[in-house]
Amino acid sequence: MVSKRPASTLVEDPRTLRAIAHPVRNRILTELAATGPARAADLAQDLGIPANQTSFHLRQLAKYGLVEEAPEAARDRRDRVWKVVAEGGYLVNLRALEAAPETRAASLVWRSHFERWAHAVISAAMRRTSVDDGAVVTISDTALRLTDEEARAMVQELNDVVSTWAARTRGRDPQRRTYLLMYAAQPYPDLEISRDEHGADDGDANDSLGS
Hints:
This protein is mostly helical. Helix content is 53%, strand content 7%. The chain has a single domain (9-210), classed as Arc Repressor Mutant, subunit A, CATH 1.10.10.
């Protein structure tokens, strides 16, 4: 049975945008989304930071409505367990945020954070290809000819597959580790080609000179 991806929460408040862009808080949100409800001590162990710092960041995330307490998962009234509010993740409309004067600065911070984060993720994956610890690491790209409607349908199918696996594996199983799946679907980007790339490579150049 396919699990439908919960609806994403639209982020429009600049303070919420800054909270999501904070590296530690973003990591906390990622872990809560992957494992489900967790205590500050559990998250601190996962992230390798002091529990009091984790508690502080959780309170800040709660302040902006990004996490909330999960009393249904607590052992008693003194046990504080946290969960994400938006199970479907967050949708950031950068075009709208950058167009509004009151949110432009926050949107630029978010864009800069996301670009650095995406670069760091790819760099980490490239480095991990030389580590043999049983983990699966894959980087691939595929060009497809699609109408816009077909592209939307394909992305929805991908989201449904990811949601099914997320629902199936959510929890704190010690045999599992947190995997990050990142993919981008877009019209083929108009990338600038450098002057060097216009010419032949060294091998072709030598062949041409020797003919």
